[in-house]
Amino acid sequence: MMLSFFDQFASPTCLGIPLMALAIALPWLLFPAPTNRWVANRLLTTQTWSLNRFTNQLLLPMNSPGHKWAALFASLMVFLLTINMLGLLPYTFTPTTQLSLNMGLAFPLWLATVIVGMWNQPTHALGHLLPEGTPAPLIPVLIIIETISLFIRPLALGVRLTANLTAGHLLMQLIATAAYVLLPLMPTVAILTMAVLFLLTLLEVAVAMIQAYVFVLLLSLYLQENV
After folding, report:
1. Which family is it part of (predicted)?
2. Which end of the chain is more exposed for a tag (fewer CB within 10 A), N or C?
3. Closest Cα to residue 22, out of 95, 79, 82?
């Protein structure tokens, strides 16, 4: 049976039961649990150092109310990074290639930043909809434009993550298929194609990390506008 290139993005099922929740929950088992010992192993030390550096860099521009979101942003970063990286392994499923999951993460978190702004400083939050010094005839048009740009933010967050990961997986599958087909016909070209595939895999590793960071970074910028 001939499979489509897009079959790799289908949600896995077993006996008719969707395995999406299992694919989301299992990566958490790969992380070491914190310990009360003075001396930890290298993996736990590296994990702690990375989270501290990421949290410091992300929350440095914010004032103290925004620091309450540190645990949420760090957990979200680790979650997205793990799922994106595991999705590059053979015979695995990447949940973040599903727009429904990404929108389910982006919309509630974006809405939470908006609610925080409206609750704490409503005048300042609404002031983003109308730049200072706007001519009177342009006020209605600019309010509409800024409102649309505000509500399109969660869509942009979800679509950006989905599109980047989906495009990378499709390109890797296309090049791998080409190398497999060309191997008995033109071995030299097939070897060159495999070299390109290896370089593309390294690039996709970088993309998986960068997209997880960008997702959380944009959420922190939205929060920074409202605290």
Report:
1. Belongs to the ATPase A chain family.
2. N
3. 95
Other Cβ atoms within 10 Å of 60 Cβ, number: 8
Kindly state the tokens that stand for 110. 């974006």
pLDDT in tens, 145-202: 888 888 899 999 999 999 999 888 888 888 988 888 888 888 888 899 999 999 999 9
Strand partners for 17? 14
Please tell me the distance from the alpha carbon of residue 128 to that of residue 114, in angstroms, as a whole number: 11
Question: What distance lies between CA 180 and its chain's CA centroid?
Answer: 31
Phi-psi region for residue 94, left (φ > 0), alpha (ψ -120 to 50) or beta? Answer: beta
The Cα–Cα gap between 23 and 5 comes to: 21
- Please tell me whether residue 114 adopts helix, strand or coil conformation: helix
Cα torsion angle, 60, 227, 82, 29, sign = positive
- Tokens in use for 63? 């004032």
Using DSSP, state whether 19 is helix, strand or coil.
coil
pTM metric for this prediction: 0.83
pLDDT confidence of residue 1: 36
Task: Report the Cα 100 to chain-centroid distance in Å.
Answer: 13
Among 198, 194, 196, residue whose Cα is nearest residue 183: 194
> Has residue 116 got a pLDDT over 80?
yes
Name the nearest CA neighbour of 165 among 92, 73, 75, 57. Answer: 92
Distance CA 174, CA 21 (A): 28
